[in-house]
Amino acid sequence: MPVTKSKTRVNAKEIKKKKNQLIYFFGRGQAEGNAQMKQLLGGKGANLAEMTRLGIPVPSGFTITTEACAFYYKEGKKWPAGLEKEIEQNLARLEKTMGSGFGQRENPLLVSVRSGAAASMPGMMDTVLNLGMNSEVVQGLIIKTENERFAWDAYRRFIQMFSNVVMGVSHETFEHILEKKKEQLGVKLDVELKANDLKEIVRQYKKAYEEATQEEFPSDPKIQLFKTINAVFESWNNPRAIKYRDLNDIRGLLGTAVNVQAMVFGNMGNTSGTGVCFSRNPSTGANQFYGEFLINAQGEDVVAGIRTPEPLDNLKKQWPVIYKDLLKIRTRLERHYKDMQDMEFTIQEGKLYLLQTRNGKRTAQAAVRIAVDMVKEGLLNQNAALMRVPAGQLTQLLHPSFDPKDHKKKIAAGLPASPGAATGRVVFSADDAEVWAKKGEKVILVRIETSPEDIGGMHVAEGILTTRGGMTSHAAVVARGMGKCCVAGCGDLQVDYHQKLFRVREVTVKEGDFISLDGSVGEVYLGSVKTVPPSLSGEFGKLMKWADQVRKLRVRTNADTPKDAQVAVGFGAEGIGLCRTEHMFFEGDRIIAMREMILADTKEERERALLKLLPMQRNDFYGIFEVMGSRPVTIRLLDPPLHEFLPHGQDSQQEMASVMNVPLERIREKVAGLHEFNPMLGHRGCRLGISYPEIYDMQTRAIMEAACRIKKKGKKCAPEIMIPLVGTEKELNVLKENMEKVIGQVFKEYHVTVPYSIGTMIEIPRAAVVADRIAKVAEFFSFGTNDLTQMTFGYSRDDAAGFISTYVAQGILEKDPFQSLDQEGVGLLMKHAIDIARKVKKDLKVGICGEHGGDPASVMFCHKIGMQYVSCSPFRVPVARLAAAQAAINEKD
Amino acid sequence: MPVTKSKTRVNAKEIKKKKNQLIYFFGRGQAEGNAQMKQLLGGKGANLAEMTRLGIPVPSGFTITTEACAFYYKEGKKWPAGLEKEIEQNLARLEKTMGSGFGQRENPLLVSVRSGAAASMPGMMDTVLNLGMNSEVVQGLIIKTENERFAWDAYRRFIQMFSNVVMGVSHETFEHILEKKKEQLGVKLDVELKANDLKEIVRQYKKAYEEATQEEFPSDPKIQLFKTINAVFESWNNPRAIKYRDLNDIRGLLGTAVNVQAMVFGNMGNTSGTGVCFSRNPSTGANQFYGEFLINAQGEDVVAGIRTPEPLDNLKKQWPVIYKDLLKIRTRLERHYKDMQDMEFTIQEGKLYLLQTRNGKRTAQAAVRIAVDMVKEGLLNQNAALMRVPAGQLTQLLHPSFDPKDHKKKIAAGLPASPGAATGRVVFSADDAEVWAKKGEKVILVRIETSPEDIGGMHVAEGILTTRGGMTSHAAVVARGMGKCCVAGCGDLQVDYHQKLFRVREVTVKEGDFISLDGSVGEVYLGSVKTVPPSLSGEFGKLMKWADQVRKLRVRTNADTPKDAQVAVGFGAEGIGLCRTEHMFFEGDRIIAMREMILADTKEERERALLKLLPMQRNDFYGIFEVMGSRPVTIRLLDPPLHEFLPHGQDSQQEMASVMNVPLERIREKVAGLHEFNPMLGHRGCRLGISYPEIYDMQTRAIMEAACRIKKKGKKCAPEIMIPLVGTEKELNVLKENMEKVIGQVFKEYHVTVPYSIGTMIEIPRAAVVADRIAKVAEFFSFGTNDLTQMTFGYSRDDAAGFISTYVAQGILEKDPFQSLDQEGVGLLMKHAIDIARKVKKDLKVGICGEHGGDPASVMFCHKIGMQYVSCSPFRVPVARLAAAQAAINEKD
Predict the structure, then answer these.
(1) Which of A168, A265, A418, B824 is 20 to 30 A distant from A313 in Cα terms?
(2) Interchain CB contact of A788 with B (< 8 Å)
(3) Residue B768: CB partners within 8 Å, gap ≥ 6?
(4) Cβ–Cβ contact B831 with A under 8 A
């Protein structure tokens, strides 16, 4: 028995610590704790104390601190010295307050024992109700309540909960007894059981307990209590609680507190009840009291969902006085906490008790509305309102979502690679996607992984599902850029391109079957699910305006086309931080010229092919400059390895051979020659620019010719040319000199000049290490955190999704570093780079254009290390704006 | 004419600089310069001054400084102010010293004009002899020398040299005239031409000059001189000079000096001559005067190789007095410079002149012998001797080399991946290599790239040639480990596996044809070339002993087998710094058990397969421990991705299916499932250890069981277990805990304990960035600079050889960072890691086990940043020992 063990092991040193209070009492308007003490008392305990102080009716009780739980784990499951004594003292105080006796037959005190950590972990840890019951006490309860049935039912419930929570006896054992009894009696509902039936059930429950545990059911209420406290401590580290904390990023807590509270009963007849309510509508944010309740029920009955609860309006009708009290409490609590509250209440024989209050969870839409309304109502100032909306949630508002009323059959889960909801028929190739789409079908493109060749198919698809690749895989990056729903790295799927089907466990999905994707959570559903379109409220616009007023970081977007640029400007983008030029080479005839360039053996042939691409690229840039006006546009020169522009399949190579009128063998040889074992670390980026200067020359010319034409039309543009994959200062030097020559020529030909700058990506770890040298040459830095993360960790972003998820599950990584910047490692390297670079060039402009530019935590980090801007996909621009504002407010505070 | 231009552009500022001396005179026992002034006067000029000071007969002259050359380039090919005046002053001084007149008919002064930079660049820059000649002077020379033929021949030679060096007229133009003349006259040799014939040739030469340059041949000796000085300045940046400096890593020099010296003639008849001699034998190092000479010849005749020079012994016989003088000078110079000298001399009518002395180039064997002998002779102390031997040359002594007498036809060049020389018949697969070798054939294995599957074939091959991959590619690393000759990344070869042949330009080499490889220089020869075996001298041993006395770095080896370990211990290895365990999984039946493990779907199946591998691995380690005794043995747990252990070809997959009795489809699926786009950044190293803990558990058990068995035999061993690819402290934590559990069990089972430690590779950039955190857990660090370089630069070591060579050629990279550590970038990261790690763990043991551990410059860097040891392939151990000694000596000085 751990309790006595811990008692005997108390030593001198522990006794000295006695002055540390292990228990905080609350009751009758007075409390030792308060709402600030969440770390020590847990959220539930701190708020029970606070409500008590506010004079709100709360059943009296006490909270055992999270430090006691931490001690329990640290010292091999022993209690801290003095805990037992403090429990006894507080029990006595509780008895006195309630005027009843724990374990006494006359006027017995029953208690609830509930867990409660500093962060909300609903349903993850254990609770025992009606504790303090035994065969004597039940008799006293019958006398006290004059309700024999209630008393036996309470006893029955207690045995079941205690057996399950403390001793691990399965619920089924007890449900089985109950069902058998009902069968015997020919009744269907629990409520049809009489007092005597329940008494018999209690007998059978005890017997079942003895069989399962080989010991008698404890009748000493103190032993019941001590064992339950240990069970709650244990529940802190049960697998589902650990998993929950991992998934919800809850870290650094001491453990759970334990709340021991006098029982109140909502199931004492038709003047009793229990319910849950929100101070505002958690779905819409409307300022209306919202909730539901059940008459003659305990909280667990609401959760079990056997009876359908009634809306609060019915409470108003039936018990107007209680409703009024509750409404007062709602207003009181909301004004006190200055946030929307989620409350639990119980009515025992006409008397109202609050059992819990906490800040309520809400949809993004509700979060925005509540924040803005509360400013209107004078409850919050603008900055406080900005801090109230989780920036990451905002994307929910910009994409379609599934109709919550429609049924969903989940068949698999992957990474939430690009938010939104989509339904369509499955196709397995980009070509098929285009064919089906032309016929008017909505399609979902399912691939093991996508490549630049697939752009066309991705464009027409409603959504994209891949089995490999992580948050920064090709599919994920492109989908986010397009604002298209994508679930990536869904490893459970086995795709068979040949048979055009995929399997996931027992389910087989063939080409043409409907599936649905939720890119915001990364889930895949069988069949078609209804979607609802997004709608942006006026409150949203207001909140964004406030954010813009306070933030210091500028927010740009990653956009490759005038259309994307237009969308992003609509969302508030102040420039383009990354315009990739490679996607431009895939459309229509361009790919042919591009392939001619790649097949060329001499510089002259390459230049000839590039000359065909020049006017097309120039038009691309012209279109983007037109949209962006005087806003800066950072254009990254060609980055991917050349093999990505060649077809790899037998058929498509044959097709290329006929279109271009070259022998198939030539194409095969070129593909083989360009093959690399690790293309991410291969001949790409500025390495191509050095090997084939004519490529970057052409791109530079296209950019500056477009800029000169804009200028000649009397309009403005602000091109920034960015060189990818720079690792040494000399690479940049050589390329910059070449480019300046070309730019000089263009200016001469057009008889105008346009201001421009030439800068570099910082995406190779070495570039960050020697950033001071590179800063001598570069006119700006943009951190390419996708590649930087990839190389700093040595994780291929196309392959690593599998082991990264293992790492996150095991707590080796806190988060997928492709989703949220690894501040400790990659971040340190970035900070180093900025610090040494600014020593050389004080005002160096620094930004980020990796996918992290749209992740709130990463945006805050970028603010902290002194960047001037972040850049992210169009649909994440509002997220970045809000996160940047929150970073600025955090800094001020 | 640049000369006058420069004169007119002299400005006030430049005149003020006048006090900077631009010319240094030497003559008649006095000199303004000395041997310390190589940077300013070039090696030749400094040594001419020094010899003059020593009283050695040197034709008088003067040296124009390298600063003048630097000015010439910096200021757009202008001369510094005052240069012309200083030339005139020094010419006058020279005339006075010589008692002759420049451009005078009576007793004319002729001069030679020679380049000479601070570093020796033999034959790279230009020389003009006999300058000062015109149609007047030739008459005077006839009178002075009473040798009409000589005078006209001197004139002829001058015109040809001047025309070629200064005006770029081709040699062929003049050779053609000469040949035609000889044909006309029906003679074969130049010496058969009479004075009149030569006079006619001079006329024709001048005409040819005028035709080629459209101007008259300059008759003003000063103009001849000025133009020639400019031509020498220009020659500093001719393409072959630039290339030579690049290849020989000569950097940071100002330019070339110009040496103007009174002519002496070795071709004035049979009492004249010219020669080259070494103070010791440059091949063997033997302390014997060594050289050759030609009677009646100028230096160029020796170089041209038309007449065969005679050995010095003949000089001794013919001219004993001169020989004795030369011998005295040899001794004087060697004692003065304390190094073996390479000297040029001319005898003019019985009088000896020294034209040059410099430290002589020598073979590795000679370098060692000379250094050791000079200590014996009291010329050097031990440390000075250690500094005299270039550490990198030592590998020459440990491998076979080609017989220098045998003919070689070079067909291609690649990277010198693993030193040595090999001849054999070409095969194109590892299997073929084994088949041919069994038949007793010597084979050269030619592959696009090798993989672990090829180990068997590599083992039986004489040498390995690959077309892809760099200095740290699989082929290179494995070959060095085996001490086997390898040329890697030979991109000119086009290998056709199907037809079993390779092509390189016009040459086609088929299976079975002989080729030869020189892995020390990276060259490929057609046919069979004789090799000579290595032999280690007593001097080598002595030098190594001295090195061991002074060095602070310990030197370990990278060895995977008892045999390699034995070899390395023979070369002085003090431990194993890297024992790779993956190669152990390929031999015989092991690969089957390994594949069972990979195909397994459950942990239990994997454990069953691993149980088969356990005794094999245990035996491997036992054997290595036996060889190494109490020396530390660092064993790296499994590192490569699992797909490397599966066959990728159709046939071999079919074979595996029949051997293992599983469906082919199962194997194909597994291979496809394990495929990664960038395996270097994939699921390997400790990531496997986390996903499949049972693999590392088995390896840990095998290591410690072997160690316990050694202990039980009363012997010692010192295992260090090393975890690869760690990027976060938590990875190491999790794995270390697992391993300690296993080790505890093994100790319990064997009833003994063995001291051990658990450490980590630092090869992921992130690990270096957060090394302080990792140091909390790791008991030692070993830098894996292959991977660290790969990821810090973002260069795939299997793919990057191509663009790295472009980068090196263009000067973007100083060296291939896989050959010699990038101290600026990767090195900075290493230094950072050591510095922050030692703050946490003051005495943390730190070493390096990347291939850089055998590169002298890298070893010196490792010393500088405070490592305790380096580890390299067995055949580089002596290199590392010497480099470590040199680092320690450098530090002391």
Answers:
(1) A265
(2) no
(3) B762, B788, B829, B830, B832, B833
(4) no
Across chain A, mean pLDDT equals: 91
Q: Do A793 and B764 touch (CB under 8 A)?
A: yes
Q: 3-state SS string over A30-52?
A: EECCCHHHHHHHHHHHHHHHHHH
Q: CB-CB: which of B677, B803, B825 is closest to A770?
A: B825
- The rounded distance, in Å, linking the Cα atoms of B544 and B879 is 9
| pLDDT for the residue A245 | 81
Strand partners, B531: B402
pLDDT in tens, B5-59: 333 333 333 333 346 799 999 998 899 999 999 999 999 999 999 999 999 999 9
Q: Is B636 helix (H, G, I), strand (E, B) or coil?
A: strand
Q: Residue B726 is which amino acid?
A: V
The token pair that represents B458 in the structure block: 């590599």
Q: What is the DSSP string of B530-551?
A: -EE-----HHHHHHHHHHHHH-
**Of A74-78, B223-227, B693-697, B784-788, where does mean pLDDT reach its minimum?**
A74-78
> What stretches of A579-663 show up as alpha helix (H) in DSSP?
590-599, 603-628, 650-660
Residue at token pair 């630039």: B242
Of B467, B463, B412, nearest to B801 (Cα)?
Answer: B467
Does B682 sit within 8 Å of A800, measured CB to CB? yes
In chain A, what residues touch B793 (CB-CB under 8 Å)?
727, 764, 766
Tokens 């009876």, located at residue? A307
- Dump pLDDT digits (tens) for B86-121: 999 999 999 999 999 999 998 999 999 999 999 887
**3-class DSSP assignment, residue B576:** strand
- Please write down the HEC assignment for all residues of A16-27: HHHHCCCEEEEE
The two tokens of residue A667 are 């194409």
Instruction: Please tell me if residue A448 touches chain B, with a CB cutoff of 8 Å.
Output: no
Cβ–Cβ contact B889 with A under 8 A: no
State the DSSP H helix or E strand holding residue A518, giving kind and residue range, or none if neither. strand A514-518
Q: Report the residue of A678, A690, A797, A822 to disrupt the B interface, i.e. the one with the largest count of B CBs within 10 Å.
A: A678
Kindly write down the DSSP assignment for every residue of B16-79, as one continuous string: HGGGS--EEEEETTEES--GGGHHHHHHHHHHHHHHHHTT-----EEEE-HHHHHHHHHTTS-P
Contact B682 A764 (CB under 8 A): no
What is the Cα–Cα distance from B152 to A392, expressed in whole angstroms?
A: 93
Residue A26 has pLDDT above 50, yes or no: yes
Task: Give the whole-angstrom CA distance, residue A584 versus residue A568.
Answer: 19
Closest chain B CA to residue A687: B803
Query: Could B679 and A677 be called an inter-chain contact, meaning their C-beta atoms sit closer than 8 Å?
Result: yes
Residue whose C-alpha is closest to residue B710's, from B814, B633, B769, B808: B633
- Ramachandran class of B150: left when φ > 0, alpha when ψ lies in -120 to 50, beta otherwise: alpha
- The amino acid sitting at B316 is K
* B490 carries an active-site annotation: no
Residue in chain A nearest B825 by alpha carbon: A766
